[in-house]
Amino acid sequence: MDAIQEQDIARAAIDAFHEQTGLTLTQDCSEGPEADGLLYLNEADVVLVAWVKKWVAHVPVGVLLDRMARLSEPGKGILLADHVNPELAVKLKAAGVQFLDSAGNAFLRQPPLYVYITGRKPTRPLTTGATTAGRAFQPSGLKVVYAFLSNRELVNGTYREIAGQTGVALGTIGWVIRDLVEQGYLEERGRMRKRDWLRYDALLDKWVEAYPQKLRGKQLLGYFASDREMWWKQVRPEAYGAVWGGEIAAAEYTQYLNPVRATLYIPKMQMGRFLKDERLRKAKAVEIEWPHATVELLEPFWKPGEDHGRLANPVLVYADLIASGDSRNIETAQKLRDQYIGQQPCSDCPGEGYPEDGAQLI
């Protein structure tokens, strides 16, 4: 059991806010598809939609910004957390994300009321961030979960079929499925143990949160730069068995984003040829910081054949955008989720809903 349960966090944050400001918040725990209840500010006519998150300091900031943007209309959502450290407080405030934590740190902007408290340390022990998520959210499990998210019907494949499509050891498949069932993302029923989805969106959120922490860094091949502007527009990634991810893929999917940074998933054995053909050099340290690096190369963690032409699956592109923590990317990620991920095509109608091969990049 976690040291601090979510409702413990909510109560502690509300109490600490009252202690620091003298203002009173009342919680209504009615839950919606995204929210963990409503907060009423008794001294003013203010209603806020709450999301409670534990171990918030260990969550990529892009995940927090994306979830809060989907929670409610701007200015009406609030994050309740165990502890928001000063660095995170600055980022949340800059993005307009209101928050309270159990230590008494807070940011609330409801004109004419304005509260900003930061730098307070926790008064009770917090967990180290280790979770009991099980095998589904360890590196091998994340590969399996990604395959399920990308192809919803695969959950009813045999263990051998799932292992064949993911490259994960056969024995791992059963552990991952049991973990997903125990956590309420899937259910098994009947003698044949048919698997049905229960919480696809929640599993997507969990995977997107865990991917940059547990798997993405393991696939990184390096950062590289070019002296030619927009060099990537002439690249045919399929010639290298590669696919665009991140901003370039998102730009083509949504026709909304002007790409700044390139993300390419490419087999390691093709990397040398690609760098030579495109005259790319190793990026300097200053160029690696987002968004200055011209291109980041990552090794695919999935089996060939899951991609849509030269673009990575929208699920992976969405995760890339969220991992960047960039506000414009997060806005594009929300459009991508609405347009493609919310209506993932069935496995026997490939390509439905995706850009046709040969479509022009922005």
Run of helices and strands: HEEEHEHEEEHHHEEHHEEHEHEHEHH
Shape assignment:
globular
Helix content: 25-40%
Structural class: alpha+beta
Distance between the termini: 49 Å
Rg estimate, integer Å:
22 Å
Oligomeric assembly: single chain
For the biggest sheet, the summary is:
7 strands, mixed
Residue fraction in strands: 15-25%
For the biggest β-sheet, the strand order reads 1-2-3-4-5-6-7
In short:
By secondary structure, the chain is of the alpha+beta class. The protein has helices at 6-21, 61-71, 86-94, 139-150, 159-166, 170-182, 200-214, 216-219, 246-254, 268-277, 285-288, 314-324, 327-339; strands at 25-28, 38-41, 46-53, 77-81, 98-101, 106-110, 113-117, 186-189, 194-197, 220-225, 243-245, 262-265, 281-282, 295-298. Helix 2 crosses helix 12.
Account of the 3D structure:
The strands form three sheets. The protein has a seven-stranded mixed beta sheet with strand order 1-2-3-4-5-6-7, sandwiched between helices. It has helices spanning 6-21, 61-71, 86-94, 139-150, 159-166, 170-182, 200-214, 216-219, 246-254, 268-277, 285-288, 314-324, 327-339; strands at 25-28, 38-41, 46-53, 77-81, 98-101, 106-110, 113-117, 186-189, 194-197, 220-225, 243-245, 262-265, 281-282, 295-298. The relative contact order is 0.11. By secondary structure, it is of the alpha+beta class. The protein is built from 13 helices and 14 strands. The model is unreliable at 128-132 and 344-362 (pLDDT under 50). Helix 9 crosses helix 12.
